[in-house]
Amino acid sequence: MTSSEDNPLSFSIGYTEGVSALPRAHEDVLARVAAVVAAAHPLPEPVLLILTDDAYIQQLNATYRGVDRPTDVLSFDLSDAGDGTAMAGGGEVYVDLDRAAEQAAEQGVPVLEELARLLVHGLLHLAGFEHQTETALHAMEEQTERLLEAAGCLGGDSTS
Predict the structure, then answer these.
(1) Partner of 15 for a Cys bridge, out of 19, 32, 131, 149, CB 3.0 to 4.6 A?
(2) How much is the pLDDT for 154?
(3) What is the pLDDT of residues 80-100, one digit of tens each?
(4) Are strands 73-77 and 91-96 parallel, antiparallel or unpaired?
(5) Measured CA angle at 31 (ends 27, 36), to 5 deg
(6) What is the pTM assigned to this prediction?
(7) Strands of 47-52's sheet, edge to edge?
(8) What gap in Å lies between CA 8 and CA 19, rounded to an integer?
């Protein structure tokens, strides 16, 4: 799926086994969000959003971060092996639908808005953003809000 004619980011959505697909309209919103982020920040291409559950993301988190618990979002830049050698390219963002639903309920926002927020967060990591300090976290959160607003995903405009 191509997210926008203005910005031809190669963006697609996949699902891990046992995870139900989102409605097409929700996928279209997420593609629009990815296009907005790509227009503002360089991203590796292609980008694959993989929607998953607690069990799968916990495995990834344990394997790649050494943290044996679920998390809401993980990003992998496949164009950098971490040792200076180039890889095949692209990026993957894994979003845990279980965490997204729980966090949306806690915040009183539609699930789609929380999914969009997590996607932006993951894409910003692919664009080089980190949040090791409070200042960096604040900057990343401000950037997230700006991009969500630009994509039209704030204020309950999205359906749950």
Answers:
(1) 19
(2) 81
(3) 655 555 555 789 999 999 999
(4) antiparallel
(5) 150
(6) 0.87
(7) 11-15, 47-52, 91-96, 73-77
(8) 27
AA identity, residue 66: G
Alpha-carbon distances, residue 144 vs 18, 53, 82, 108, 153 (angstroms)? 29, 23, 25, 18, 11
Cβ neighbour number for residue 21 with a 10 Å cutoff: 11
For the chain, the helix, strand and coil percentages under 3-state DSSP, each to the nearest 5:
45, 15, 40
- Exposure pattern of 35-53 as b/e (b: 16+ CB <10 Å)? bbbbbbeebbeebbbbbbb
Measured distance CA(151)–CA(131) in Å, rounded: 23
- Residue at 92: amino acid letter: E
CATH fit for domain 11-150, picks 1.10.3720.10, 1.10.287.600, 3.40.390.30, 3.20.20.100: 3.40.390.30
